[in-house]
Specification:
membrane; T2SS_GspF_dom; Pilus assembly protein TadB; mainly alpha; transmembrane helix
C-alpha cells in the first residue's frame, strides 16, 4: 500500500509540473532578457519544432518577423533584392532551415522567389512568408518600393504577435485553474488514504473500482484536452 501511495504522489507531482510549466512567450522573453548567445536561441528553436504545433507556429512567426526586419535593413543598405534576401535568410534562425533552401537558390540565381517563399511557408505559422511573397511579387511586377512593403509586413506581423502574446497572458489564469482542478482527484485519493480508507485497494483490486479509475482518468484527460483546445483556438 505504501509503495502504491508513493507512486501516486510522484505521478501527480510530475503531471502538475508538466501542465504548469512556463509557456512559449515566457520562455522566449526570459531567454532574450538574459542576453543568451545565438547558439542558445538556435537550440531553443530546434526544441520548439519537436513540441506542439502551436509552439512550432510561434517559432515560425518570430522567424518571419526577424526575416522581414533583416531584409528591410539589407535593402536600405543599397543591396539588390536577391542579395538582400540571401543575406537576410542567412542571418535568421528558422525552425526548419532545410525548407528555405529553395528560397535561397531562387534569390541567388534569379528564380521565382514568390513561388519559393509560398512553397516553403508551413501551414501553421507561415503567414509571414506568404505575405513576404506577395510583397516581393508586387515589388517586382509593379515596381513599388520593396523596402516600404517589407516594413509594412513586419509591422503587421509584430502587431499580430503582440496580440497573440496578450491573449496568451489572459488565458494563463484559466489554464492554471484547469490544471489544478485536474489534480484534485489525485489529492482526494491521498486524503482518503491518510484517513485509512484504502482507496487504492478498491480502485486497483476490484472490477468496479478499476472501471471507476479508468473512467475518471479518461474524463480528467478529456477535460484537460478540451480546455487546451479552447485556449489554442482563442489564441489562433
Amino acid at each position: 500500500m505504501s509503495s502504491a501511495l508513493i507512486v501516486t504522489v510522484v505521478c501527480t507531482a510530475c503531471a502538475v509540473w508538466m501542465w504548469t510549466g512556463p509557456d512559449v512567450a515566457t520562455t522566449r522573453l526570459s531567454g532574450l532578457t538574459r542576453g543568451g548567445a545565438r547558439s542558445r536561441r538556435r537550440m531553443f528553436g530546434r526544441l520548439l519544432t519537436r513540441t506542439s504545433p502551436a509552439r512550432r507556429a510561434d517559432a515560425w512567426h518570430s522567424a518571419s518577423i526577424e526575416l522581414c526586419q533583416a531584409l528591410s535593413a539589407e535593402l536600405s543598405a543599397g543591396r539588390t533584392p536577391g542579395e538582400a534576401l540571401t543575406r537576410a535568410l542567412a542571418s535568421v534562425d528558422f525552425p526548419d532551415p532545410q525548407t528555405l533552401r529553395p528560397v535561397v537558390a531562387a534569390a541567388r540565381d534569379g528564380g521565382d522567389v514568390p513561388a519559393a517563399l509560398t512553397a516553403a511557408a508551413p501551414p501553421q505559422g507561415g503567414d509571414g512568408l506568404r505575405r513576404l511573397a506577395a510583397c516581393w511579387e508586387v515589388g517586382v511586377t509593379v515596381g513599388a518600393g520593396l523596402s516600404a512593403l517589407v516594413d509594412r509586413v513586419a509591422s503587421t506581423l509584430r502587431a499580430a504577435q503582440a496580440h497573440r502574446q496578450d491573449v496568451a497572458a489572459q488565458l494563463a489564469g484559466p489554464r492554471t485553474t484547469a490544471r489544478m482542478l485536474a489534480a484534485l482527484p489525485a489529492l482526494g485519493l491521498l486524503m482518503a488514504a491518510a484517513l485509512g480508507m484504502r482507496p487504492l485497494t478498491f480502485l486497483l483490486g476490484t472490477l468496479p473500482g478499476l472501471m471507476c479509475l479508468v473512467t475518471g482518468i479518461a474524463l480528467d484527460a478529456c477535460g484537460l484536452w478540451w480546455t487546451n483546445r479552447m485556449a489554442t483556438q482563442a489564441q489562433g
